[in-house]
Design goal:
The chain has 3 domains: 11-60, no CATH class; 75-159, no CATH class; 189-309, 2-Layer Sandwich (Alpha-Beta Plaits). Helices cover 30% and strands 15% of the residues. It has a 6-stranded antiparallel beta sheet with strand order 4-6-7-5-8-9, covered by helices on one side. It has a 3-stranded antiparallel beta sheet with strand order 1-3-2, with no helix packed on it. A hairpin with a 2-residue loop joins strand 2 and strand 3 (146-149). The chain has helices at residues 24-30, 32-41, 48-60, 84-88, 114-122, 152-178, 219-229, 268-279; strands at residues 128-129, 140-143, 146-149, 189-191, 201-208, 238-243, 256-263, 284-290, 305-309. The protein is an alpha+beta fold.
């Protein structure tokens, strides 16, 4: 039974996994990559004890990575200090929702100019409306509790960052066409367009996305080009997506890019062996997981199958 008289900070103890019994702050200080992994691996499916640690991580973890030193990311709109409010609401500078969040269901801005919206700000017209929406002022967020105009700080941030965002988008198009995901900064993933359903599983492969060869290509770029151009050598029963340069909070090593290959349980070994030949995979253990999350008793996400790639 917990000692209710103990100082609050002393009761912040990890209750699961390899650091069970250790102070939460101690884990953050000694192994921040594990803390970031917990946020990724247990997102959306955590026990109460796990959720307590996740909440502590979100409040106390300091991100030690300085993206301003990356020549590609230093001009990314989402690293601008004004982008925080947009990120909190799952929006980009076009005020479009890029994630499915319960807070923002619909957000359209085409019907009103920035000048007209500033005028609305001056007149303090940003308040809850009735069920009817004037199509001339279709600059709203629709919530389950009603229809609201956007908060001033959200739109002001979007207006301030919009041109930088569009410059990022224009640059990305060139790198997508060139087959260099390691230089794409606005999107998190490039996909082959294949459809992945929940009955499939996935192989997760890691490649360097920072170090470039003499041709200016990283290992991730080379992998993406091979998959895009020679996927017929692997077969037609798989689909894939490749991470980009954009920092992802779900990744513990920003040096590595991720290739996720989806396939069925029936042909997972055949797919891996063909990938090994095509991508020159290193020998060692490779883990396949069902696309739906499954967890071991200690709360760690469990792999469903391991294949040892040998000579």
């Amino acid at each position: 039974m917990e000692d209710s008289g103990a100082p609050r900070e002393q009761r912040k103890i990890v209750q699961f996994g390899k650091y069970k019994g250790r102070a939460m702050q101690e884990v953050l200080d000694s192994d921040p990559s594990y803390a970031r992994w917990v946020l990724s691996a247990l997102a959306g499916d955590a026990t109460r004890n796990q959720a307590d640690f996740m909440a502590y991580i979100k409040e106390h973890l300091v991100d030690y990575l300085d993206y301003s030193k990356d020549p590609l990311l230093k001009d990314a709109w989402y690293l601008d200090s004004r982008a925080k409010v947009l990120d909190q609401h799952g929006l980009d500078p076009e005020l479009c929702s890029y994630t499915e969040t319960p807070e923002i269901v619909c957000c359209r801005v085409e019907a009103i100019s920035g000048e007209a919206y500033r005028s609305m700000l001056d007149q303090d017209l940003l308040r809850r409306q009735g069920n009817a929406v004037d199509p001339e002022l279709d600059f709203v967020v629709r919530l389950s509790t009603g229809i609201y105009f956007l908060k001033p700080e959200i739109v002001n941030a979007a207006l301030a960052l919009r041109e930088k965002y569009r410059e990022n988008e224009r640059a990305d198009k060139l790198h997508i066409s060139a087959g260099t995901p390691s230089r794409v900064i606005n999107r998190y993933w490039l996909s082959d367009g294949g459809i992945c359903n929940i009955s499939t599983g996935k192989w997760t492969l890691f490649f360097d996305r920072r170090k470039e060869n003499a041709d200016g290509l990283t290992d991730l770029d080379i992998c993406y080009r091979l998959l895009r151009e020679k996927s017929a050598h692997v077969g037609d029963k798989f689909s894939f997506k490749v991470s980009t340069r954009r920092p992802n909070s779900n990744t513990t090593d920003q040096q590595k890019g991720v290739v996720v290959v989806y396939c069925s349980e029936d042909n997972r070994v055949d797919i891996l062996l063909k990938l090994a030949r095509l991508l020159s995979l290193k020998h060692g253990k490779y883990y396949w997981k069902y696309h739906t999350a499954r967890y071991a008793k200690d709360g760690v996400k469990a792999s469903d199958f391991c294949y040892v790639l040998n000579n």
